[in-house]
Every structure is written in structure tokens, then in C-alpha cells.
Design goal:
Elements: H1 2-29, H2 42-50, E1 59-64, E2 69-75, E3 81-88, E4 91-92, E5 110-115, E6 119-120, E7 128-130, H3 136-140, E8 149-151, E9 160-161, H4 164-179, E10 184-190, H5 196-201, H6 208-224, E11 230-233, E12 236-239, E13 241-242, E14 259-260, H7 293-297, H8 304-307
Parallel strand pairs: 1-10, 8-9
Antiparallel strand pairs: 1-2, 2-3, 4-9, 5-10, 6-7, 7-8, 11-12, 13-14
Length: about 300
């Protein structure tokens, strides 16, 4: 009888433990995880695996205004970046061309660098990260404006606005790259895909010379699948160069002796899927930059988060 009683007690203990665990899980499931801590979806994790990527490796972002698209690339074991996803940009403000001054409604164009402290988990536009405008080049050219972001809510006044669901995934991928040790995420913001045909189409633009320099960086990445080096001197970007480090590079000073770096071609690593993944979603801007959805929304001023509580 003692043995039977012992088995009964054990069964009761297991049953009680199961009920307790179920209760704890139910309680946990009712706790809302804040957006900046939400894990990547199972589908996203699986896609990373199929593409030979991990969550912790470095990320790289390219933005294209005219196409209203944001590309996210992930580094693999050969040090090169491979396309992960293309996301629709829900909204961006102004027209084609760089941001020049506070309040001009322009979204920035150029080569930007986003360290971890520029991630904003408390944005009033769901989630955000600061592009770092004005960067060294912008400051050398006396350009003004603050807190130009990539964020959620699909509203923009100088920023690139995504839907909340898409900025959550982009933010989480960036977060995991920082956890993996990446010091800063490079973001290259372009007016359009920098093909020779597109540049020719815009040859009468006052920004054509500036865009030609951006194309140098675009072309380097297209070949090497690594972000190009960027130096600022004589108040201009000098792309794909290196210098001996013996001379100080001043953004407003003469360029020192610089050596051109040629992109190194490579053989891509194999992958379980060659699929180019393009996320569905709204694009409120007309192709070619025609119209300004933000005027219809009644937004004014520079970067939205700069007006709406980005931690200073």
C-alpha cells in the first residue's frame, strides 16, 4: 500500500506542477512586451537561416527615395553583405535632393553611420533610429536640422517613415547586430537606384554632381558587397579611397594624398534560397517624387522626432 500511495502522491505532484506551470505561462503571456524588445518572428529567423545568415551578424541599410524602398543586408562569414529583405517606405518628405536646412521638409541623402546610442526605443513614432544628420559632410557645408530618423507611423517631415510592423522588424535586426558586436550600422541614402540610366535621366538637376559622387559609393557596393570608405575634405565626399594617416583630414581643408581603392569582386557563398524577398506594404509617395503627402498631412518643420520627444 505504501508503494501505491507513493505513486499516487507523485502523480498528484506532477499534476500540481503542470497546473502551476500552465498558470505561470498564462500569466506571462498576458505581459505585453515593449516594441523595442520584441523578438524576431519565427518566419524571419527561418529566412535568415535559409540565406546563411545569423541574427548577430552586421547589418547594412540602403534607402532609395524615388522607389520608396529600404534594403537591409546582412554580413556572412566571408565578410560580404548579402541581401536579406527589401521593405516599402510608407512615406518620406520633400523631393529628390539632399536636406539643406531645418524646416525644408527634405529627407537626407548621403552616407550615414548609426551607432547604438542613436537607436530610440521611446519614439512617439513607435520606434526610430537617428541617421546622424548633420554628418561631417553636412556640417562642413553649413547644413542644419536635427533628429532625422527612420521610424514608424507612416508620417514624415524630413524622415523616412515605415509602418509600425516593418520598423519593428528592422529595429530588431539592428538591435541584434549591436548585441553581436557591430559598432555602427552604415546607412546609404540615395535619391534613386544609382544606375547610369537614372543619373542620365536627372542630368539637368542641380544635384547631379553630388549624385555622381553618391553613385561611386553605390557602384562600389554593387561590386564588392561591402560599404565603401568615405572621406570628407574640401567640403565634399571622396569615396573609395584610403590615406596613410600621417596627415589630418579636415572636412573644410584641402584633401591630403589619397589612394583610390578598387572594389574586389568575389564569388558569392551558396545559400538554400536565392529568393529576393520584398515585403508588401503601402507607399504613399508617387514615383519620381511627385507630390508631397506630408503637406496633405499638415506636417511641418524638420525631423519629426526632433519635434516630438526624442531624448536629448
Amino acid at each position: 500500500m505504501g508503494f501505491a500511495l507513493g505513486k499516487t502522491v507523485k502523480r498528484l505532484a506532477v499534476a500540481v506542477a503542470a497546473v502551476t506551470l500552465a498558470g505561470l505561462l498564462a500569466a506571462c503571456s498576458q505581459v505585453e512586451i515593449p516594441p523595442y524588445l520584441r523578438p524576431l518572428s519565427k518566419e524571419t529567423i527561418m529566412l535568415l537561416g535559409k540565406k546563411g545568415m545569423t541574427t548577430s551578424t552586421a547589418s547594412f541599410i540602403r534607402v532609395f527615395k524615388e522607389e520608396s524602398e529600404l534594403e537591409l543586408w546582412k554580413q556572412r562569414e566571408d565578410g560580404r553583405y548579402y541581401h536579406f529583405k527589401t521593405y516599402p517606405i510608407c512615406n518620406w518628405s520633400g523631393g529628390l535632393g539632399p536636406k539643406v536646412k531645418q524646416g525644408d521638409m527634405q529627407a537626407p541623402e548621403g552616407f550615414y553611420r548609426v551607432p547604438q546610442h542613436m537607436m530610440n526605443p521611446n519614439s512617439q513614432f513607435h520606434l526610430a533610429f537617428n541617421l546622424g544628420y548633420p554628418n561631417t559632410y553636412d556640417k562642413a557645408n553649413n547644413r542644419t536640422g536635427d533628429f532625422l530618423m527612420i521610424h514608424g507611423k507612416c508620417k514624415s517631415a524630413g524622415c523616412y517613415a515605415m509602418t509600425d510592423a516593418l520598423i519593428e522588424e528592422i529595429y530588431a535586426l539592428a538591435r541584434e547586430s549591436f548585441i553581436g558586436g557591430q559598432e555602427a550600422i552604415h546607412v546609404h541614402a540615395f535619391p534613386f537606384r544609382m544606375t547610369a540610366a537614372n543619373l542620365e535621366r536627372h542630368k539637368t538637376s542641380p544635384h547631379h554632381k553630388f549624385w555622381t559622387t553618391l553613385k561611386d559609393g553605390y557602384d562600389f557596393f554593387e561590386t564588392a558587397k561591402q560599404p565603401s570608405s568615405v572621406v570628407v575634405c574640401e567640403r565634399r565626399y571622396v569615396v573609395n579611397v584610403t590615406h596613410n594617416g600621417k596627415q589630418t583630414v579636415r572636412p573644410d581643408g584641402a584633401c591630403p594624398a589619397l589612394e583610390k581603392v578598387a572594389p574586389e569582386a568575389f564569388t558569392p557563398l551558396p545559400t538554400k534560397t536565392a529568393e529576393t524577398v520584398v515585403e508588401p506594404g503601402p507607399k504613399t509617395r508617387a514615383a519620381g517624387g511627385a507630390g508631397d503627402a506630408n503637406v496633405r498631412l499638415g506636417l511641418t518643420g524638420g525631423g519629426v522626432d526632433g519635434l516630438a520627444g526624442f531624448p536629448r
